[in-house]
Amino acid sequence: MLRGGSRWASRFKIFLPRLKNDYKTPPFLLTFSSSFTTTAPTAGTGAADNDSSQPGRPSAPPPIQVGFTDSAGRGVFATRRIAAGELIHTAKPIVCHPSLSSLHSVCYFCLRKLLPDQRPLFQSNDVQFCSQECQNQSQVFHEIERRADWSTFNDYCRMHGLKYPLLVKRYACLVISGSSSASSLDILQPASLSSEMISLVEKEFCLLRSTFQDADINTQQLAFLTKQWYTGVLARIRINAFRVELACESYEDLLSSAAASVEAEGAVGNAIYMLPSFYNHDCDPNAHILWPENVDARVKALCDIEAGEELRICYIDASMDYEARQTILSKGFGFQCNCLRCSSHH
Ligand SMILES: C[S@@+](CC[C@H](N)C(=O)[O-])C[C@H]1O[C@@H](n2cnc3c(N)ncnc32)[C@H](O)[C@@H]1O
């Protein structure tokens, strides 16, 4: 199950959980420094950062920290009052991939929609980029990826409607090129995969490995690519991947931006981010993730949020009724939602 932006205009009161008395912040994530979450405007994408960022001036750290919740593991909490509509932070993906149906209509690196006259400009091995800069930045995975013939792997994914293996493929290319560590997703919560699911991924794992082997990627470089690694990554992707839906909106009116998200065409791709993965779900969320231009995500407040309050996003289509939401959250994410809205069966 992939998470998209919230599509539900808030009518219910926001869930305000108590922080644990023994509230502790994990040592790996304290308050976020600007270097962790704020990102320089992406070359060629024009994506801006936190509202406070100005060229030559360090941007303020985002007003959030990761801590433990009473009942949903780790979560993201406000460190000060956040006003409705405020841009809380931006996030660049750890790994992303266009959906197979968007392969020829979006940039292979940043998932920005390509203009028809851009298509012939930045082309490499049958994929396109929106700018020279995106093409250059893609070298971290594309140098490896283009050495192999992915037609069988892609056909298998297309035939079975699979999206996650494409993310694993790109992540594996980043690891092989030395641009990423094979353990960089370990910090994320994994889904528990049944033994039936684990046996089902055998085929895609073997295809991925054999495609690299056929491209003469040597055994030493492929040492990390075991079935255990593959299923571990897949288990994390399953819970933490976002479906990227580009919504061209004005930022001024969050309710209209939520509506824009509903009207946007289907997903252009899928992506994994670090900080956004720590946001828990609420069927009446107080925060919202948007992709105005490309895969660079913007997290905004949907209402006023008090210091200490947990920030939650909605993983699913919140306009669904109670039963449908519970079914999807339980089957897709493995939890029973106990938000205020669900507690009253709305
Ligand atoms: C994307 S992760 C969110 C961060 C996670 N809590 C952690 O510790 O890494 C999604 C997982 O958080 C938990 N979770 C998120 N929202 C929840 C909710 N409303 N009720 C219970 N558990 C929730 C579930 O275990 C879910 O599979």
TrEMBL record:
Residues 41-65 are annotated as: Disordered. Coiled coil: none annotated. Pfam families: SET. It comes from the Eukaryota. InterPro entries: H3K4_H4K5_MeTrfase, SET_dom, SET_dom_sf. Residues 62-316 form the SET domain. GO terms for cellular component: nucleus. SUPFAM superfamilies: SET domain. SMART domains: SET. This is Histone-lysine N-methyltransferase ATXR4. It comes from Coffea arabica. The lineage of its organism: Eukaryota, Viridiplantae, Streptophyta, Embryophyta, Tracheophyta.
